[in-house]
Design goal:
Elements lengths: L3 H15 L2 H7 L7 H11 L3 E5 L7 H14 L2 E6 L2 H15 L4 E4 L4 E2 L5 E5 H10 L7 E6 L12 H9 L5 E6 L5 H12 L2 E5 L7 E7 L2 E4 L7 H7 L12 H17 L2 H4 L22 H10 L5 E4 L3 H14 L6 H15 L12 H10 L1 E4 L5 H12 L5 E4 L13 E4 L3 E3 L4 E3 L2 H8 L11 E6 L6 H9 L13 H20 L3 H30 L7 H35 L5 E5 L6 E7 L10 E4 L4 E3 L10 E5 L11 H16 L17 H16 L8 H28 L2 H15 L3 E2 L11 E2 L1 H6 L7 H10 L7 H8 L20 H23 L13 H8 L4 H5 L6 H19 L6 H14 L2 H4 L6
Parallel strand pairs: 1-7, 1-8, 2-5, 2-6, 3-5, 6-7, 9-17, 11-13, 11-14, 12-13, 14-17
Antiparallel strand pairs: 3-4, 9-10, 15-16, 18-19, 18-22, 19-20, 20-21, 23-24
Helix pairs in contact: 3-4, 6-7, 13-15, 14-15, 14-16, 17-18, 19-25, 20-24, 21-23, 21-24, 27-29, 28-29, 28-30, 28-33, 32-33
C-alpha cells in the first residue's frame, strides 16, 4: 500500500481508464494485462501505429484483439493477417466464437467465408492482392493487424509484408506483432517513416518462467549452475561476467567423460589388427545410460510431471517413427474417458474421408497413436489430421506431439515442456546447427499461460554434446530482423501501372531493405574518411628525394597484378579447354582423366544432359561408374583409344561392368587408335599479357626511384598505402552499390518486362517516352507466385487453350510444384500430346528467361517441374488417392497442400483480364475437379 496521495492518484487513473475503450476491453477479458500490453493498447487507442516485439507466449495477440474491438466500436473494419493458412483458420475460429460468425470472415488462397464481414482474417498474400486490385473490400478499413510480422525476413515470401505496409492507405492503423528481435528500434524507425507515428513496445519478459534442462538418459539435469530462468538469462547477457551464468558442472564432467571414452574407443585397438586385417575403426559407443529412446523420453517426462510436451524432431519420418515406437511399447498416456473423447473427434473426421482413402493416408496408425495420447505434426500430414491434433492438444487430450519445426511458425500449441532431440537440422542442402533465434522460437512454446506455473525446455544429450554451446543458444538474444525485399515481375508491373515508373521507383526506395542499406552507408562512409586520413600519413612516409615514389609504387603494383592475371588466365584457358574436351566426347571414347579424383583411364558410356555443364558418365578400369565434370580435371582430357559399347549396356549389373572394363583393357593393350578427329587438346597463353609484363619491368628499372638506397623502406609504406587504398575503393564501391539498390533492381526487372512486351513505349513516344503497361502486362498483374512471369509467358503462347480441365490441372503443377530434391533430369511422358506441347513451351520459355535473368544480374526463375503432373491429372479425372500416389514418394499431406496451390493458381488464371471465356471456363472446371475428397475438406465450417 502506498501513501494516501498515491492511492488517490491510482484511483483517479483507474477511473479515467474506465471511461476509455481500453477500460471497456479490459473488463471483458477476465484477466489482468501486463504492462507492455497496456502500453501498446493505449497507443492503439491514441490513433498511433504500434510495433510489439515480445517472446512467444507473452500475449502479443491481445493488442491485435484490442484493435479489432476498437474497429467494431467505431463501426469500421479490421483485417487480421497471418503468414500461414493454419494460423488464419485458428484465428478465424477463435474470433468467430467470441464475436459471432456473422461478424468474422476468412480469406485464404482456397477458402472464402463471409469476406465482407467487419472483421476478416486472411493470409498476408490475400491482402497484398487486394491492394493491387484496389478491391472494394478495403472500403471502411481502419485497422490491420500483422501477426508474425518478423516473417518479412523470409527469403521467399518476406517481400509481401513490406508491400502491404507500404501500400496500405495512410488512414489505416497498422499493428505489427513480432517475435523478439534485436533491432526492433530500427524496424520501428522504418515503420515510423512509411506509416507515420508508430509506438515501439518491446518486452523481454515471459509471463511463465522458462527453465533450461539437458536430459542424459532418464536424468533431467539443469543446464545452468544456478536457478536461472529466461528473463534472468536475457538480463545477464547484457554484460554480466560469464561466470554468473555458468554451465552446470555436472554436464561439463559428463562431456569430459564422453570425450575420454570416445578417445579410448577410437584409439589403438582398431589400428592393432595387423596389416592383413585392416578395416575401419569400430565406432565408439557412448555409455548406454546417456542414451534414451523416444518412448523412454515420454515416460521420463510423464514421471517428472512435464507433460503435455512437444518433441521437436527435424524429420518427418522421425516424427512418424516416434509415434509408432511409442505405440509398440503398449502404454497409454490417456484415461478411458479421454480416449472416448478422442475417438469421438476421430470418427467425425473419418466420416468426411472416402473409405478407400483411409489406408493410403495412414488413418489407422494415426488413430491408434491419438487414442494413446501420441501424435505427429508435420507438413506431410493431411491438413485434417493436423487440425485435429492441434485441437486435441489444446484440450489437453493429446499429451506428446512429435513435430518438425513448422509447428513453431505461428500455430498456437503451447505445452508445459518442449524437447529438442537434436540441435542440428537439414536445410535442404546440408545439416546445419540451429540458430539462437530458432532455438528461442522452438522453446518459446513451453509454458501455458493460466495453466502452468513454469515452462521447461529440454535438450536431449547426444554423443559430442557441448554444454557450453547449448548454454550459448539458450542465452543469446541478438538476432536481427533483416529485409528480404526485392522487386518481382508482378510487383513491378502493379506499381508502374498504378503510380507510373518514377513514383514506383520512389515507393520501392521506401522499403525496409533500402532503409537498412541507407543506414549501413553512414557507417561505411565513416570508415572511408578514416582510411583516407591514414592514407595521407602513409603517402608522407613514402616520399622519396629522387622522384615520385607513388608513381613507382603504382608500377610495382601493376606489375604484381599483371603477373597474377597472367597466372589466372592460364588457369581459365586450361579450364575452358577441359570443358571443350568434355563437350566433344562420344560414347566409346577411351580417355585419360587428369585430376584430383585419379579416375585414370576410363571409357565414356553416356553423354551429359546439359551442354551448360558437360558431365559425361564413364566406366573406369576398376569397374566404377562415375560422372566427370570440369571441376574434376586439371586440364583437358585426352582421347587415347576407342571401343564399342553394346546397345544393351545399362551399367547396372556387375557382369556388364566387368565385361566392358575387360574390353577397355584389351583396347589399351592392343594400342587401338582413337576415332578419327579425336585426340588431345592444347591451349595457348596470352602474348599480350607477356608483352605487358615485359614493358612494366622495363619502366620499373628506368624509374628514378629504382636506384634509391631507401627504396625498400619506402616500398613498405607504399604497400600499406596500396592495401589501404584497395580497402577504401572497396568500401566506396559498396556505398555506390547500396545506394538506390532496390531502384536499380527494379530497372533491370522492367528491362526484361519490356523485352517480352509487358511494358512498352506508347505509340509515338520515342526513345525518351515513359514505359506503360500493355494488355499482356495487365494480365500478368493478376498472376502471383514464384514463377509469375513464366506462367504468363506460357499463357500468352496459347498452348493452354488446347488443354481440357484434367490436362490443365496436371499441367499447371509444372508452374507451381517444386520437388524437395533435385530431379534426375529425366522427365516422364506427358498424359497427352497437348500437355507435352505445353510442357515443351514452358521449358523453352524458361530457358530463354533464365538467360535474360543471368544477363541482367537477377535471381533465376525456378525450372518447371513435372513431378506432380500425373498424380494431379489422375486426381482431376476422379481416381482415388491411392491410385494417384502410386509410384511417387509424395506424402498424402504434401499432395493436398500442392493441390490447394494448384487450385489457387487456376483460380487466378480464370480471373485474368481478357482471358478467352473457353479457357476461363476450363480453369474453373479444373478447380472443381481438384477440389474434392480430402482436398476439399477443412475443419473451418462454411
Amino acid at each position: 500500500m502506498g501513501s494516501p496521495a498515491e492511492q488517490y492518484a491510482a484511483w483517479r487513473e483507474r477511473a479515467a481508464e474506465a471511461k476509455t475503450e481500453l477500460g471497456a476491453f479490459r473488463r471483458g477479458l477476465g484477466f489482468d494485462l501486463d504492462p507492455f500490453q497496456i502500453e501498446a493498447c493505449a497507443a492503439v487507442e491514441q490513433g498511433r501505429g504500434v510495433l510489439v516485439a515480445a517472446p512467444t507466449g507473452a500475449g502479443k495477440t491481445v493488442v491485435g484483439e484490442f484493435a479489432i474491438h476498437c474497429a467494431l466500436q467505431r463501426g469500421m473494419k479490421a483485417f487480421y493477417t497471418t503468414p500461414i493458412k493454419a494460423l488464419s483458420n485458428q484465428k478465424f475460429n477463435e474470433l468467430s466464437a467470441y464475436y459471432g460468425a456473422d461478424k468474422v470472415g476468412l480469406l485464404t488462397g482456397d477458402t472464402t467465408i463471409n469476406g465482407e464481414a467487419d472483421v476478416v482474417v486472411m493470409t498476408t498474400e490475400v491482402l497484398r492482392n487486394m491492394l493491387y486490385a484496389d478491391s472494394d473490400t478495403l472500403t471502411g478499413l481502419a485497422y490491420v493487424v500483422m501477426d508474425e510480422v518478423h516473417y518479412l525476413a523470409d527469403k521467399f515470401r518476406g517481400a509481401v509484408w513490406e508491400e502491404v505496409i507500404i501500400h496500405l492507405p495512410q488512414s489505416v492503423q497498422v499493428i505489427s506483432l513480432s517475435a523478439t528481435v534485436s533491432n526492433a528500434e530500427e524496424f520501428g524507425g522504418w515503420l515510423d517513416t512509411v506509416r507515420g507515428d508508430t509506438a515501439i513496445v518491446v518486452s523481454e519478459h515471459r509471463p511463465i518462467p522458462l527453465w533450461q534442462h539437458v536430459m542424459a538418459g532418464s536424468r533431467l539435469l539443469d543446464l545452468f549452475a544456478g536457478d536461472v530462468a529466461f528473463d534472468e538469462v536475457a538480463a545477464l547477457e547484457g554484460g554480466t561476467p560469464e561466470r554468473d551464468i555458468a554451465v552446470n558442472p555436472e554436464l561439463t564432467r559428463l562431456a569430459q567423460r564422453d570425450e575420454r571414452r570416445n578417445f579410448r574407443g577410437g584409439g589403438g585397438r582398431a589400428n592393432r589388427r595387423g596389416r592383413g586385417h585392416a578395416g575401419p575403426p569400430r565406432p565408439a559407443s557412448p555409455p548406454e545410460k546417456h542414451r534414451v529412446s523416444r518412448p523412454e523420453l515420454v515416460l521420463a517426462l510423464d514421471q517428472a510431471g512435464l507433460l503435455p510436451a512437444i518433441v521437436f524432431i527435424f524429420s518427418r519420418k522421425g516424427c512418424d517413427a516416434a509415434v509408432a515406437q511409442c505405440v509398440r511399447t503398449g502404454f497409454f498416456l490417456t484415461t478411458d474417458a479421454e480416449s472416448r473423447r478422442i475417438e469421438h473427434e476421430i470418427d467425425a473426421v473419418a466420416q468426411e474421408i472416402p473409405p478407400d482413402d483411409l489406408d493410403v493416408i495412414g488413418f489407422w496408425a494415426w488413430r491408434e497413436g491419438l487414442l494413446r495420447g501420441f501424435a505427429a505434426h508435420h507438413a506431410g500430414l493431411l491438413p485434417i489430421f493436423k487440425e485435429v491434433v492441434e485441437k486435441l492438444f489444446a484440450q489437453g487430450l493429446v499429451k506428446a506431439v512429435f513435430a518438425t519445426e513448422t509447428l513453431a511458425l505461428g500455430v498456437n500449441m503451447p505445452a508445459r515442456s518442449v524437447v529438442l532431440e537434436k540441435l542440428e537440422k537439414f536445410n535442404g542442402e546440408s545439416h546445419v546447427s540451429i540458430s539462437a533465434g530458432e532455438y528461442t522460437q522452438l522453446t518459446g512454446r513451453a509454458g501455458r499461460r493460466g495453466i502452468d506455473v513454469e515452462g521447461h525446455a529440454v535438450v536431449l544429450w547426444q554423443p559430442g554434446t557441448d554444454p557450453a554451446a547449448v548454454a550459448g543458444l539458450a542465452s543469446k538474444r541478438t538476432y536481427p530482423l533483416n529485409s528480404s525485399f526485392r522487386p518481382t515481375y508482378n510487383m513491378s508491373l502493379n506499381l508502374s501501372s498504378q503510380f507510373g515508373m518514377g513514383r514506383a521507383r520512389s515507393i520501392l526506395e521506401s522499403s525496409f531493405a533500402q532503409f537498412q542499406a541507407d543506414r549501413s552507408v553512414v557507417g561505411l562512409a565513416r570508415q572511408v574518411r578514416s582510411r583516407q586520413e591514414s592514407m595521407a600519413g602513409y603517402a608522407a612516409s613514402m616520399t622519396c628525394h629522387l622522384g615520385d615514389f607513388e608513381e613507382y609504387a603504382r608500377l610495382r603494383h601493376e606489375l604484381g597484378q599483371a603477373e597474377k592475371d597472367a597466372s589466372r588466365t592460364a588457369h581459365r584457358m586450361r579450364r575452358s579447354a577441359a570443358e571443350h574436351s568434355l563437350e566433344l566426347l562420344q560414347p566409346g571414347d577411351v580417355i585419360d582423366v587428369p585430376g584430383p579424383r585419379r579416375l585414370g583411364r576410363s571409357v565414356v558410356i553416356a553423354l551429359a544432359d546439359s551442354l551448360r555443364d558437360p558431365r559425361p558418365t564413364v566406366l573406369t578400369e576398376d569397374r566404377q561408374v562415375r560422372r566427370v565434370g570440369v571441376q574434376d580435371l586439371e586440364g583437358p582430357v585426352e582421347v587415347i583409344s576407342r571401343i564399342r559399347i553394346p546397345k544393351s549396356f545399362t551399367g547396372r549389373t556387375p557382369k556388364e561392368r566387368k565385361d566392358l572394363a575387360a574390353s577397355l583393357r584389351n583396347a589399351l593393350h592392343d594400342n587401338r587408335p582413337p576415332r578419327r578427329g579425336a585426340g588431345g587438346f592444347d591451349f595457348p597463353g596470352s602474348d599480350r599479357q607477356e608483352a605487358r609484363i615485359t614493358e612494366l619491368r622495363r619502366q620499373l628499372k628506368r624509374h628514378p626511384c629504382h636506384g634509391c638506397s631507401e627504396r625498400e623502406d619506402h616500398a613498405r609504406w607504399a604497400e600499406r598505402w596500396w592495401k589501404l587504398k584497395m580497402e577504401t575503393d572497396k568500401l566506396s564501391s559498396q556505398i555506390a552499390g547500396r545506394t538506390n539498390t532496390i531502384a536499380k533492381t527494379f530497372d533491370r526487372v522492367c528491362s526484361i518486362l519490356q523485352h517480352y512486351g509487358y511494358l512498352a513505349l506508347p505509340d509515338g513516344g520515342g526513345d525518351g517516352g515513359v514505359l506503360v503497361t500493355t494488355p499482356a502486362g495487365n494480365r500478368l498483374r493478376r498472376i502471383y507466385g514464384e514463377r509469375d512471369l513464366l506462367t504468363s509467358l506460357v499463357l500468352e503462347s496459347g498452348c493452354m487453350d488446347r488443354l481440357g480441365a484434367a490436362e490443365l490441372a496436371g499441367f499447371v503443377t509444372t508452374l507451381v510444384y517444386q520437388a524437395k530434391r533435385e530431379s534426375s533430369g529425366v522427365h516422364p511422358k506427358m498424359p497427352s500430346r497437348e500437355v507435352q506441347a505445353a510442357w515443351d513451351v514452358a521449358v523453352r520459355n524458361w530457358s530463354e528467361l533464365t538467360d535474360l535473368e543471368v544477363a541482367n544480374r537477377l535471381p533465376e526463375t525456378g525450372e518447371p517441374d513435372s513431378g506432380l503432373v500425373w498424380p494431379m491429372y489422375h486426381w482431376a479425372r476422379g481416381k482415388d488417392l491411392k491410385e494417384c500416389l502410386r509410384g511417387t514418394d509424395l506424402a498424402a499431406g504434401d499432395f493436398v497442400r500442392w493441390a490447394k496451390q494448384v487450385i489457387d493458381t487456376l483460380d487466378q488464371l480464370a480471373k485474368v483480364p481478357d482471358l478467352s471465356p473457353v479457357l476461363a471456363g476450363r480453369c474453373r472446371a479444373a478447380v472443381d475437379a481438384v477440389r474434392r475428397g480430402v482436398v476439399a475438406y477443412s475443419s473451418v465450417a462454411d
